[in-house]
Design goal:
The protein is mainly beta and 79 residues long. Helices cover 10% and strands 42% of the residues. The protein is elongated, with a radius of gyration of 13 Å.
Length: 79
């Protein structure tokens, strides 16, 4: 599976293409991370993965990216 701090490239390599990508907006980086300097404008995106794409899990997930870095994984409850 993936973990916080992974890059978009690493997530794509491990999980493949998400079923949905959505641009949420921009933010100014508050801290230094891998390749982002403080104050740099970064995109915020959410990627949706279905459980069937992620063989080791039984729930769908939202992956939240700030810039190129995965910052949060959210379980999506089935409807």
């Amino acid at each position: 599976m993936v973990s916080n701090g992974d890059t978009k490239y690493e997530v794509l390599k491990k999980c493949g293409q998400p079923v949905h990508k959505e641009f949420l907006g921009v933010d100014h980086a508050r801290k230094l991370s891998r390749n982002v300097k403080r104050g740099t404008e970064v995109k915020i995106e959410v990627w949706i993965y279905e459980a069937k794409q992620l063989s080791s899990v039984s729930q769908d997930y939202q992956f939240i990216f700030v810039g190129l870095e995965l910052v949060e994984l959210i379980h999506i409850s089935p409807h």
